[in-house]
Design goal:
about 280 residues, TIM Barrel, 10 strands, 8-stranded mixed β-barrel, about 30% helix, 8 helices, alpha/beta
Length: about 280
């Protein structure tokens, strides 16, 4: 998810190079009006009506389009979203950024929480972990801001390094990372009555041996290869396959994700997680 910040910085840098005669083209960022299905050029490996401004050459048998159920994750960087149009286009789920650290609330969270509910899109909230604040304080902050609502998807703990943080460059040892993750996860389980999901990236997964935080489902980022390759075959429930996706209802790029199972499996998963 931090890729959204990284992309914005990269765009500014490339634009500056082009202005100085560096010759590097800025990446194509669609913005302005809400995108419709007719505006999106089909991309091999990406299910219609979705697209990608920087597509991957996915190998056969490992394509996002091999999966039946797709959704998005969003934050303030997406701006206003037409959730009704997104639902009509086949966005089957959404994870919304809610909180970060112990004092930051995404300014679009409440509008997105209402909008997805109105559009009938199953959605959950995620927390971006801050390594310079105790996990229990962060859990309390999330609980203060995210409703305990029947039918919501499980909450998500987003754990990844943030090289752009102006206030926290601390990288705890793996044992501390996993212990703090457990504190946060257990607090949310007690409050919301269902176990959260862990989102992470390849480098974070490997350095901190996140598979040792067992008993939880994983949402894995893998934008160049299938997660079965990058995560040594570890089971995943959600796969974030691009940070430069396009989908109807959005004004620009958005993260796209796949659910691991079939359409019927998705309905079964929803029923189990909503009990």
């Amino acid at each position: 998810m931090i890729a959204r910040v990284r992309l914005s910085l990269m765009t500014l840098a490339l634009a500056a190079l082009a202005a100085c005669g560096g010759g590097a083209p800025a990446p194509r960022i669609t913005g302005g009006n809400v995108i419709g299905a007719a505006d999106i050029t089909p991309v091999p490996g990406i299910p219609r009506p979705f697209g990608d401004t920087s597509p991957t050459d996915w190998p056969r048998g490992q394509r996002p389009s091999d999966h039946a159920v797709h959704g998005v994750d969003v934050s303030k960087f997406q701006g206003p979203i037409d959730w009704t149009r997104a639902a009509q286009a086949g966005v089957a789920f959404a994870f919304l950024k809610a909180t970060e650290g112990g004092d930051r609330l995404d300014e679009t969270f409440r509008a997105n929480w209402r909008g997805t509910r109105s559009a009938g899109i199953p959605r959950g909230a995620y927390h971006f972990f801050y390594f310079c604040r105790p996990a229990i304080e962060q859990a309390d902050w999330f609980i203060r801001n995210v409703p305990r609502e029947s039918g919501a998807l499980p909450p998500v703990l987003d754990m990844e390094w943030n090289p752009f943080s102006p206030t926290c460059t601390y990288r705890p040892p793996p044992e501390t990372v996993r212990d703090e993750a457990r504190v946060f996860l257990q607090a949310l389980t007690r409050h919301y009555g269902q176990r959260p999901i862990i989102y992470t990236t390849i480098d974070f997964w490997e350095r901190n041996q996140m598979w040792k935080v067992d008993g939880y489902e994983f949402w894995l980022r893998s934008t160049a290869r299938h997660p079965s390759d990058n995560y040594a075959g570890h089971h995943w429930t959600f796969w974030q396959y691009t940070g430069t996706g396009l989908a109807p209802g959005f004004r620009g790029e958005v993260d796209l994700n796949a659910f691991y199972g079939s359409a019927a499996g998705w309905q079964d998963w929803l029923a189990r997680r909503r009990q």
